[in-house]
Amino acid sequence: MTGRDAPYDVHEIPEFTLACGATLRPARIAYQTYGTLNAAKDNAIVYPTWYSGRHWDNEWLIGEDKALNPDRWFIIVPNMLGNGLSSSPSNTPPPWDRARFPQIAVRDNVAAQHRLVTEVFGIETLQLVLGWSMGAGQTYQWAVSHPEMVQRILPFCGSPRTAPHNKVFLDSLRYALRADAAFAEGWYEPDALPVRGLRAFARIYAGWGFSQAFYWDEVWRELGHTSLEDFAVGFWEGFFLDGRDPNNLLTMLDTWWNGDVGATPGFASTEEALASIRARAIVMPAEKDLYFPPEDEQWAVSHMKTAELRVIPGVWGHFAGGGANPVDTAFIDEAVGELLSS
């Protein structure tokens, strides 16, 4: 069984100290696996989730007709800290509940995932780490934190360091959500969510997630929407009102805002951290992504030793990596297959 109704597993780490200094007791990492780990334990792939995504949201790139074929590969999809399934403001008991939940770094996610991969499965080598958006940020971090394990990486529509323009977007989301009086500084009750703030949050996202050309060409009609307002309400507001907790959103937003592989202990800069990556890489920005434009990832690739920049063409912007457009899916899948066959 796959999808949101399928059962999933949870790995508990009794004491997990975060980069900020706080300790979760325990930290819980929810995950799903696809395929079977072979006897040599050398067919493993890690495919982290993205901002507010859950493990089933990654399934569009997994299948017998895909390069991520579970008949051949053992694919682990760990849920990000803060996404509502792994340890999050919404499911952590006092004293670290709700607005008191501690700050999570990208490298905290990777450290927890490393514990999962090694402690639960005894895996020493990862054939591939890949991910979309914040999943791409975790992909870069895996390659920096564990170069001895990671053979290949494919970050798509994401970056090793959050750019200033990206932070402007994230701050607008933060202020819109917190401006709703019902937010109550994060101490709202589960049955009294700041709905106005969430709707404003969604409307800001709508201007960034897809490109100008996507809207000019009315490509939203391909997703079944009948007008621009129908798309804004049905797709965007519906997305963020579908069980997404505001404190969870802010926790993951802070993780995104502070993302930088250069903050990894032992490195003096992002450039130095990128230069340390040993894994073969195909870095795949989308042509019209407003968050992670190709020129930003061209800069990242220029500091990596074995990396290729391969731009996803088209008008879908950031959502070229979201699995909604079959043409983009085929383009990404082809690169995954190329990496895994090398």
Automatic annotation (TrEMBL):
**Its domain of life?**
Bacteria
Q: Which residues form the AB hydrolase-1 domain?
A: 62-199
Q: Which InterPro entries does the record match to this protein? A: AB_hydrolase_1, AB_hydrolase_fold, HAT_MetX-like
Stated name of the protein: Homoserine O-acetyltransferase
Please tell me the species this chain comes from.
Pseudonocardia cypriaca
Give a yes or no for keyword Hydrolase in this entry: no
Q: Example GO molecular function term? A: acyltransferase activity, transferring groups other than amino-acyl groups
What keywords sit in the KW lines? Answer: Transferase
Q: Which residues form the active site?
A: S133, D289, H318
